[in-house]
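Please fill in the sequence for the structure shown.

STRUCTURE ENCODING:
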């Protein structure tokens, strides 16, 4: 295989499009691939075709709608209706997106694959380490925490050390029409960001139920459990004369339990299905830093194995960990893996 051939995941956005230009300038023979995940991705495919043409690279269109429906959308619907907070991007990456990226590279005989993620890679001692991006404000390593060596060993992240302004400048210099395109802030298959509306359109109306106050009394009616997530403070429509947040969602009783802000902190969490970035990267009794949501700060903790689960005991309590969310485990700037909060 030609070691200077690379397969680039394209979306038509500025990050992946700038990657195409940068990689070509570095002497790579670049082939693009755009992944159609759902009906909402028609525009993504169209934008990727324009970007590939402007960057002067061939483009493969990969239809992953059936796989994405099964692995991501059905998971997303199930988690919300079960009162949990899903992590669709973290689930999609190993099960669909990067699986298909490496699969397509193999089909084309291409040794390496690239994406526009703001994260780093370091090769040492026969393994590939996933690291934080150099710009903390744009670091996307949390979203990749469940990737293993089968994927990481084949990847290149051209944007790892670059600020966004420099990426946009490179796109402008290359004459790419996406240079000023705004970043996407929503889940890719729900472009209007109306999660509850999407779930009800797919699964039917979710019945209203009772809010339960911190004192254990009914204090109002909620609009359906899919409208709320653990830790939520705004948009509850409840006036108790003091700040409260969603502490627990019980789908069996169709109740949403509230708590005072002072009760939002948790000393420990339990993780299921903990995935390691390389074999034994996480060991029983080890000290590490754990990030309980994408925008959280990694917090010092000790991890202990308990049967099929891992107990995470934090040095300092963490605010409102949510069942279903992914917790990513770090050692400094290196990602060790990630599991689901139970």
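FILLED IN BY: designer on duty
SEQUENCE:
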């Amino acid at each position: 295989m030609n070691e200077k051939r690379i397969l680039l995941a394209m979306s038509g956005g500025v990050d992946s499009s700038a990657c195409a230009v940068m990689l070509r300038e570095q002497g790579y023979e670049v082939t693009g691939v755009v992944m159609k995940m759902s009906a909402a991705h028609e525009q993504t495919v169209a934008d990727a075709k324009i970007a590939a043409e402007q960057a002067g690279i061939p483009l493969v269109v990969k239809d992953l709608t059936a796989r994405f429906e099964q692995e991501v959308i059905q998971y997303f619907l199930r988690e919300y209706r079960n009162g949990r907070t899903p992590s669709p991007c973290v689930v999609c990456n190993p099960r669909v997106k990067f699986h298909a990226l490496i699969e397509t590279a193999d089909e084309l005989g291409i040794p390496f694959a690239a994406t526009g993620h703001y994260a780093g890679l370091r090769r040492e001692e026969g393994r590939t380490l996933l690291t934080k991006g150099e710009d903390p404000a744009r670091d996307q390593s949390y979203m990749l925490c469940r990737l293993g060596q089968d994927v990481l060993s084949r990847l290149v992240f051209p944007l790892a050390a670059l600020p966004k302004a420099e990426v946009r400048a490179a796109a402008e210099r290359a004459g790419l029409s996406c240079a000023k395109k705004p970043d996407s802030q929503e889940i890719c298959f729900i472009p209007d960001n109306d999660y509850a509306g999407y779930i009800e359109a797919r699964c039917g109306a979710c019945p209203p139920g009772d809010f339960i106050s911190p004192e254990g009394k009914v204090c109002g009616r909620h609009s359906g459990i899919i409208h709320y997530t653990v830790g939520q403070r705004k948009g509850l429509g409840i006036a108790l004369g003091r700040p409260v947040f969603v502490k627990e969602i019980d789908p069996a009783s169709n109740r949403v339990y509230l708590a005072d802000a002072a009760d939002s902190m948790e000393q420990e969490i339990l993780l299921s299905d903990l995935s390691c970035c390389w074999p034994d990267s996480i060991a029983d009794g080890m000290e590490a830093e754990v990030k309980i949501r994408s925008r959280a700060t990694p917090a010092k903790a000790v991890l202990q194995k308990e049967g099929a689960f891992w107990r995470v005991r934090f040095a300092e309590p963490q605010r409102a960990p949510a069942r279903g969310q992914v917790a990513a485990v770090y050692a400094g700037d290196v990602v060790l893996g990630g599991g689901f909060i139970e």
